[in-house]
Amino acid sequence: MAETARSNNKNRYQQQSIDPEKILGKQLPFSVEAEKSVLGSLLLDNQTLQTVSDFLLPTDFYTAGHKVIYETIFEISEKFHRVDLVTLQDALNKKGSLEAVGGLSYLLSLQEELPSIGMIEAHARIIKEKSVLRDLIASATKIITSCYQQQDDTEIEGVLDDAEKTIFNIANKRTSSNFVQLNIWLKKTFQHLNDIKSHRK
Question: Whole-prediction pTM value?
Answer without folding.
Answer: 0.73
